[in-house]
Design a protein that fits this description.
Layout: E1 3-6, E2 11-14, E3 19-20, H1 21-28, E4 52-57, H2 67-75, E5 88-90, E6 95-96, E7 100-103
The chain binds FE2/S2 (inorganic) cluster (FES).
Length: 117
């Protein structure tokens, strides 16, 4: 059974293979949403982008990114730090196929160089 390590929360959970990462976080009591997104999110439909997190290790163990997730992350790109682009995933669109280390609630790039470009 894969092990998911939530580094910010210092919490490790063992999960069945193929389980949805958003579901894992919610069942483990890990908060993946920031501010009002705790209540104003799409509940896993992949449309709001508020479940964005970073898979720091074990990216090869995450399900491949689909075209919808890729598009949704591109739409949010001006608010997200471009340095983490290859690690960014939507929890609700990611399945866990092996061990991974996850960083929830990555910093928002409100005034970064990418914002006005
Ligand atoms: S919960 Fe809305 S995109 Fe994942």
């Amino acid at each position: 059974m894969p092990l998911v390590n939530f580094v910010n929360e210092k919490k490790q959970v063992q999960v069945p293979e193929g389980v949805n990462l958003r579901k894992v976080a919610m069942e483990a009591g890990v908060q993946i949403y920031q501010g009002p997104d705790k209540y104003l999110n799409c509940h896993g439909w992949g449309t709001c982008g508020s479940c964005c997190l970073l898979v720091n290790k074990g990216r090869e163990n995450a399900s491949p990114m689909g075209w919808w997730e890729r598009l949704r992350l591109r739409m949010s790109l001006m608010f997200l730090d471009p340095a983490y682009e290859d690690r960014r995933r939507l929890a609700c669109q990611t399945r866990v196929n092996g061990d991974m280390e996850v960083q929830t609630r990555p910093a928002i790039n409100w005034f970064g160089e990418n914002f006005f470009s």
